[in-house]
UniProtKB/TrEMBL annotation:
Organism in which the protein naturally occurs: Akanthomyces muscarius (Entomopathogenic fungus)
Signal peptide span: none
GO molecular function annotations of the record: flavin adenine dinucleotide binding; N,N-dimethylaniline monooxygenase activity; NADP binding
Keywords: FAD, Flavoprotein, NADP, Oxidoreductase
Pfam family, one: FMO-like
SUPFAM superfamilies named in the record: FAD/NAD(P)-binding domain
UniProt xrefs under InterPro entries: FAD/NAD-bd_sf, Flavin_mOase, Flavin_mOase-like, FMO-like
Assigned protein family: Belongs to the FMO family.
Name of this protein: Thiol-specific monooxygenase
Statement: the UniProt record of this protein carries the keyword Coiled coil: no
Length: 414
């Protein structure tokens, strides 16, 4: 995913250093790099009693930066009119509590790790590996381990992922969730089966958001409720009922950079006083939060996850309508339209082939039953004599999607 006004000339699956460079360059593109202060940790965020704007007060931030020349940490305080929480939420690994896990880790040091620490399949050569979790990390890691690890890669699943069919992919064996780790090294599963001889266990169970800088005392309470897994008092995952000069960007996972853009524009419009629509009353905001909490809890979904499809559409439309147009003089970004092309890309440019009947619209989305999608990661040249069923070239992006009938040679197609 990219920002709407600076396409990433790489991809569609860019490595992390490319994504990092892209984000850094984005500041220069908008000539805001001089406002940017990097290598500075926010250690404390406290609402300051000093009133300034509309009686809202300011935010006092305690900051820390390492001074390499003097080899000391410099600490200082600064005041800000508004604060946006954009500190990410994939920094603190989450490992679910399982009977015996702590003792198992003590007895077999190094055997259990989290996907955050995973770097290469090489380390697992010839080992019998159990991967816990089957979301994106679980899938990517287990794919890499097939053929490197000993025997099938075991994947413990709590629920099926949307890209999974009725059978595991070749080289993978599915297991249910782990119910207990025994001291003799045996691993028990929820279906009563047991495993021994496991050399490595990789928890791909995701992350927990963390706000260690949030000063609960000064701000009157916690920012995140770990029981219900949600920001306290948020509206549309961006605004805060009790803190009009606090915002959050990056909570819903949908469309990553692109939805961050909608959120950031909505906040910028609000704070510059140029939003097209008002925020609803605090009572209506509270109602939104309560209803969403009840619904997501009943569906066993994460409060801040906005599923792809109608809900993403509604969510982005809400932010789009709230923000409204930029000015005639050109100030302010226009919230990017969710174009048909973009929706098509999102639904079709996939890393993994979906099983039959699990296409974006419940079927194969107009594709023949026996077609498959491939990505060519080189700049392609369409061959007019190609026997491929259809070629769609994204010019200048360095990649092409080829719908190829099974059995034809992809090298001929591109
Ligand atoms: C393994 C993995 C692979 C992924 N691959 C993809 C992918 O291929 N495509 C995709 O679209 N998304 C991918 N994602 C998701 C993507 O990384 C996130 O959606 C995105 O990085 C979120 O951006 P962000 O700016 O909100 O947070 P982050 O990218 O996490 O950035 C937060 C920043 O805040 C800084 N920060 C945190 N706390 C403080 C503090 N107290 N003081 C100062 N600075 C602080 C951090 O150092 C960091 O620079 C992946 C995620 C993971 C975990
Ligand atoms: N290349 C990429 O694009 C890429 C690669 C890696 C990660 N990411 C992103 O990074 C983020 C994190 O992904 P992730 O895969 O690390 O984590 P995740 O999406 O949060 O998935 C966590 C996995 O752990 C399972 N799990 C959680 N609690 C459990 C429990 N108590 N018992 C058993 N299983 C449990 C979940 O099962 P349920 O499904 O049943 O909840 C799920 O399979 C996502 O936004 C993802 O898109 C992107």
């Amino acid at each position: 995913m990219t920002f709407s006004d600076a396409l990433l000339p790489y991809g569609p699956f860019a490595p992390h250093y490319v994504a990092r460079q892209y984000v850094e360059n984005y500041f220069a593109l908008h000539q805001t790099d001089t406002l940017l202060q990097t290598n500075t940790a926010v250690e404390d965020v406290a609402r300051s009693p000093a009133t300034k704007h509309n009686g809202q007060g300011e935010w006092k931030l305690t900051l820390r930066r390492y001074d390499a020349a003097r080899q000391v940490d410099e600490w200082w305080e600064e005041f800000f009119d508004a604060v946006i929480l954009a500190n990410g939420h994939y920094a603190v690994p989450y490992v679910p509590k399982v009977n015996g896990l702590e003792q198992y880790m003590e007895k077999y040091p190094g055997r259990v790790c989290h996907s955050k620490r995973y770097r290469s399949p090489k380390l697992y050569t010839g080992q019998r590996v159990l991967v816990i979790g089957n979301s994106v990390s679980g899938r990517e890691l287990s794919d890499e381990l097939v053929g490197v690890a000993k025997d099938s890669v075991l994947v413990s699943r709590r629920s099926p992922a949307f890209w999974e069919g009725d059978e595991p992919p070749p080289g993978i064996e599915w297991k249910p969730i782990v119910s207990e780790y025994k001291e003799d090294g045996t691993i028990l599963f929820a279906d009563g089966t047991a495993l021994t001889g496991i050399d490595a266990i990789i928890y791909c169970t995701g992350y927990k958001p963390s706000f260690p800088f949030w000063n609960e005392e000064a701000n009157g309470g916690p920012l995140f409720d770990y029981q219900s897994n949600k920001l306290v008092g948020s509206y549309q995952h961006v605004f805060f009922r009790d803190f009009p000069t606090l915002g959050a960007v990056g909570f819903p996972r949908t469309l990553t950079f692109r939805s961050f853009e909608y959120q950031a524009i909505a906040l910028a419009r609000l704070w510059s006083g140029r939003n097209a629509r008002s925020l609803p009353s605090p009572q209506r905001q509270q109602q939104w939060e309560a209803e969403r909490a009840e619904r997501t809890q009943a569906q066993r979904k994460y409060f801040h996850d906005v599923p792809w499809g109608a809900e993403t559409n509604d969510y982005l439309r809400e932010l789009f309508n709230f923000a409204g147009l930029s000015t005639l003089a050109g100030d302010g970004l226009l919230p990017p339209p969710l174009t048909r092309k973009m929706v098509w890309e999102y639904e079709h440019v996939l890393k993994w082939k979906l099983p039959k009947g699990k296409g974006p619209h419940g079927g194969n989305d107009g594709l023949e039953e026996d077609t498959m999608m491939q990505l060519q990661l080189v700049v392609p040249k369409a061959d007019p004599n190609s026997k491929a069923q259809g070629i769609h070239v994204e010019e200048g992006r360095g990649w092409v999607v080829v719908f190829q009938a099974e059995g034809t040679n992809s090298a001929n197609a591109a």
